[in-house]
Write a structure and sequence with these properties.
Rossmann fold; 8-stranded mixed beta sheet; 19 strands; 461 residues; 2 domains; single chain; alpha/beta
Length: 461
């Protein structure tokens, strides 16, 4: 048998799947409640669905309790058990040295009768603890487990407990001869429960990151947020995007796919017509635009856009047609997830929608607890979107992160409010694009003309 085994988790299979060749020994270690059993059960199920027999040996988990929990995560262990592809065997918790050899012999007997392709031992810690003072017995157990991949000619998954307060495992030769070592961790950070998989070893795979955040999702199971790190800077596409505004076009004719546009404005004076410019770009170029808002629900965003277009005399039926053909709106609460998971979830939405332009609305609303991580993750997100040829528009209020947003942008549009008398104020628009000798400043009349150009395109849709 040469076909690779699977994790049954999309992002793990992408980055580490090459490590799961027959003959692989995988150690999954971690603190209590960190997700070890869930990961092992997921792998057992995913491979059983593919026709590979899995033997699950437990010293701690009860069958009915485990099956019920996994079913809530969308993993039906009972179904593969009924098909004969899963055998769950529970042994008594080992506490005495003299019963260890009997337990090993019993495991060997089950192996010989069931002939699995995968074996999960949950966990090896009780056996090793029962003989911790007997060097010879401990070596015997370690060698037995180290040989499990060869005995099943497949995949062996050993679960090991790490006591609370410790970060290392003590498995002796098992850890040394293992092909993959995962450490599952969880901690509280800024009020969030952070779960991470630390990859200590993964033979056969190129590891770009050793820490992978994950979470449990009902009906979906384990979801891993594999950070995307590109070794090389992708080229910006040669495909050009036409601009609807004549005044902007006089400074630069177009922008290219994969570039980043940053639109900034005062926190207390947000121009209402910015989305008209973006919507008309989508219409003019026959693009699909994805709006990810950190501030408003999809329904509220759609209502806001419709109301703006209605004030400019565009027919409601035509507005609905434009929105349905060119816009997909999603919203995310940036305070509901750790920042890395938030950005990975955004990329999952992008991969689902496959837009030409993605507009991040309200980028100044989330708080940055760790600026280094934010800068790292944002850079990698923008480079990944560039590799897809997706143009990015980031729009938000001017705040303390303004300078870094500017550094990441190819084009900058910054609205400023200028007081003209004691009662009135007008917008000016600072415009800069990579390659321009110096920035340009558009006055209120220029901005109004630009919006008129955009509305004309939408009216003629």
């Amino acid at each position: 048998m040469s076909k690779l085994f699977v994790f049954g988790i999309e992002n793990l299979d992408k980055v580490l799947g090459k490590s799961l060749a027959p003959g692989t020994l995988l150690v999954v270690a971690g603190h209590p409640g960190s997700g070890k059993t869930t990961l092992a059960s997921t792998m057992c199920y995913a491979n059983a669905v593919n026709g590979r027999k899995c033997l699950y040996i437990s010293f701690q988990e009860h069958r009915d309790k485990l099956y019920a929990y996994m079913k809530r995560l969308g993993i039906d262990l009972e179904s593969v058990e009924k098909s004969g592809l899963l055998l769950f065997v529970k042994f008594p918790l080992i506490s005495k040295h003299e019963v260890v050899e009997h337990t090993i012999n019993s495991i060997s007997e089950v192996l010989a009768n069931f002939k699995p392709d995968i074996i999960v031992v949950d966990s090896v810690t009780p056996l090793l603890k029962a003989v911790e003072s007997d060097v010879a017995a401990r070596a015997f157990i370690q060698n037995f487990f180290a040989e499990l991949p060869r005995l099943v000619n497949g995949l062996a998954i050993l679960i090991a407990e790490i006591p609370i307060g410790k970060e290392s495992i003590d498995l002796g030769d098992i850890e040394f001869v293992s092909d993959i070592v995962f450490i599952l961790k969880h901690r509280i950070e800024h009020g969030f429960l952070i779960r991470e998989l630390e990859v200590r070893k993964a033979r056969g795979s190129s590891i770009h990151t050793v820490q992978i955040p994950f979470t449990f999702v009902e009906k979906k199971g384990l979801v891993f947020f594999t950070p995307i790190i590109l070794e090389e800077i992708p080229e910006i596409r040669e495909e050009f995007i036409k601009l609807p505004c004549k005044k902007l076009s006089s400074y630069f004719n177009s922008i290219r796919k994969g570039e980043v546009v940053y639109i900034a404005y005062p926190a207390d004076a947000r121009p209402a017509n910015i989305l008209m410019l973006l919507l008309s770009i989508a219409k003019l170029n026959n693009f699909k635009a994805l709006i990810i808002s950190y501030k408003y629900s999809p329904k509220d965003m759609k209502t806001f856009i419709k109301n703006q277009l209605l004030t400019h005399g565009i027919d409601e039926e035509k507005i609905d047609k434009i929105i349905n053909e060119h816009i997909v709106i999603r919203s995310l609460n940036p305070s509901s997830l750790p920042l890395t998971q938030l950005m990975m979830q955004e990329l999952e939405i992008v991969n689902e929608v496959k837009p030409d332009i993605v507009i991040f609305h309200g980028v100044g609303t989330y708080s940055i607890e760790n600026e280094f991580i934010w800068k790292r993750d944002l850079l990698n997100q923008l480079l990944y979107l560039r590799s897809l040829g997706v143009t990015v528009v980031r729009m938000g209020a001017i705040n303390e992160l303004y300078e870094y947003n500017v550094l990441m942008a190819d084009t900058i549009l910054r609205f400023n409010l200028e007081k003209i008398n004691s009662k009135d104020a007008e917008y000016t628009l600072y415009v800069w694009r990579r390659g321009m000798e110096k920035p340009a400043i558009l006055n209120q009349r220029d901005i109004d003309d630009c919006i008129s150009d955009c509305i004309e395109i939408l009216k003629n849709a």
